[in-house]
Amino acid sequence: MRSQRGGGKKFSGTRKYPDKKSRLKSELKVIAPQQIDLYKPKVHTKTMAFMINLEKKAVEANASGATLRICFRNTSLITAAAGIVLLSTTEVLLRRFPTLKVKITRPPNTRSKNETERTNVVHAVLERIGFYRILRLGPFKTKSFPHVDNWYIGSSDQVEGESLSDAIKITGDLGVKTKELYRSGIEAISNAVEHAYSNLIPTRKLFPVKKWWIFVGIINSQLIILVCDRGHGIPNTLPYTQSESLLKQITQTLKNFYKDKKNQSPVSGDAFQIHASTLVKETRTKMTHRGKGGQDIKSFVTAHDGAQLIIFSNKGTYQYKGKGSKYVELGYNNHHSIGGTVIQWSIPIKPE
């Protein structure tokens, strides 16, 4: 340091080894949380803090030439929606930084209540959703888990029903009304392709990948179907895809709806905008006196007892589910944005 202050080269050695050259940090580590999950608000915050840190460290590693290490040593759970966000986040980063070197620390073996030996379900989940393949790692041999092996994961940048049809085949003989599922799924896919990455919406966000991802699987006696994109998010696209007069009418309708629900739903923020987006077709139909078929994001829920719709978009979460003969709508705003949209439908199924 003395020679540097005197105008010479920076001294990087030690007293014992004065000729030692300094090395750039060869590895940047990102530690994943114990639960990678979006459904619980507190865990949502930790999960997205991890994703944000992952993106930050990827930028640093790319600039310095260091290796990015993603450490799952503490992770014992990855849920469906969070898993697809992790997969899509990683794919976007690697498309943005194609020479980025990535290593992983595997998740630990765990033992469930009904198991005598320790197994690694998280490792199997990461392998099955294609996370390791995106990183150009593996394939790894994993123990067979029936509830994981039958999952379907696909993606595309077009509005095409082939991936959706292939995904729906997994529902088999579960008693699911595939017509309504297809309608809801195509609605989400169409929105992702037509609006999620639109050039008409001002943004500083980069879109190195412009596509949607789909997941279908059975988890904890629930059939789960979800569609994800990494675009602008519903709260940002809504003002550009709908007329001002229509949005004013929807906003007033929602304010009236929320008057007696102070502790249940938001009256502003991203969750409010997501809820508003689900009323666009219904409101437009009333205004123009003509229907829209059945191609509505809620149609799958209204066609099945016990079904539920969850929409995560940017910082908002919105839920729509049946309760007896009524439908309950809830929403809340999160601390961090998921950087896009995840639309999930679920329905309870009887175990075989």
Would you write up a description of this structure?
- The chain is of the alpha/beta class and 352 residues long.
- It contains 13 helices and 12 strands.
- The chain has helices spanning 2-5, 41-64, 80-96, 121-128, 131-134, 146-149, 162-168, 178-196, 234-241, 244-258, 269-278, 280-288, 299-302; strands spanning 27-31, 35-36, 67-71, 77-78, 102-105, 152-156, 212-219, 222-229, 308-313, 316-323, 326-333, 341-348.
- The strands form 3 sheets. Strands 6-7-8-12-9-10-11 form a 7-stranded antiparallel beta sheet, sandwiched between helices. It has a 3-stranded parallel beta sheet with strand order 1-3-5. A two-stranded parallel ribbon has the order 2-4.
- β10 and β11 form a beta hairpin.
- Mean pLDDT is 83; it is low at 1-6 and 287-295.
